[in-house]
Structure formats: C-alpha cells, structure tokens
Design goal:
Oligomer: single chain
Strand order of the largest sheet: 1-2-3
Structural class: alpha+beta
Number of helices: 4
Number of strands: 3
Radius of gyration: 23 Å
Strand content: 15-25%
Order of helices and strands: EHHEEHH
Largest sheet: 3 strands, mixed
Distance between the termini: 49 Å
Length: 96
C-alpha cells in the first residue's frame, strides 16, 4: 500500500473530484483528505464501506458474545437448537 499516494489535500478533492472517485472506485482503496495538513475525511469505495460495516457489526457481536461467556449467560448447543426449532414451529403456525 502506498500511503503517500492515498493522502490528498482538499484542493485535489475540489479540483479533481471525478478523478478521485474513479481512483477510489477502481482501486478499491481509501483516500485520506487533508485540510491544512491534518487528516479530515476518508473517501472510500461503497463496496469497501459495506465490507467495513459488516466487519464492524461482526466484531460488535463477538464482543457481546464474550461478555455472555464471561457472565455465564450461555446455553448448551442442544438447548439452543431446541429453542430455535420451537420458535420456528411457532412462527410457521402463526403464519410468519
């Protein structure tokens, strides 16, 4: 990864927006936009953003699961599947 290539001043964004969008979209990379020498925003391809959001959501679920394990708020696998099957049966009977 060429970080120097991935950092652009805000004037580049203002004057070459279409070029920047193409670069980000085709390269699947992020570009940091600076203002007065400080990083201010990041521009990224929408597919990269969607993957990032999915990964963040998964990490949050893992963190919650770790808390459940630490506080012993868990069930054996067989019990979890039994509950899930019962919930599915109830939902199908109720037309959901």
């Amino acid at each position: 990864m060429d970080r120097a290539r991935d950092i652009k001043p805000i004037t580049y964004l203002k004057s070459r927006t279409a070029d920047l969008v193409r670069e980000v979209n085709e390269g699947g990379r992020t570009v940091t936009i600076t203002q007065n020498g400080e990083a201010k925003v990041v521009v990224m391809d929408v597919d990269v953003y969607d993957k990032w959001r999915s990964a963040t959501a998964l990490l949050k679920m893992l963190a919650l699961a770790e808390v459940d394990v630490e506080t012993r708020r868990t069930s054996p696998q067989a019990e979890a599947f039994r509950r899930a099957e019962a919930a599915l049966k109830r939902a199908s009977r109720n037309g959901r």
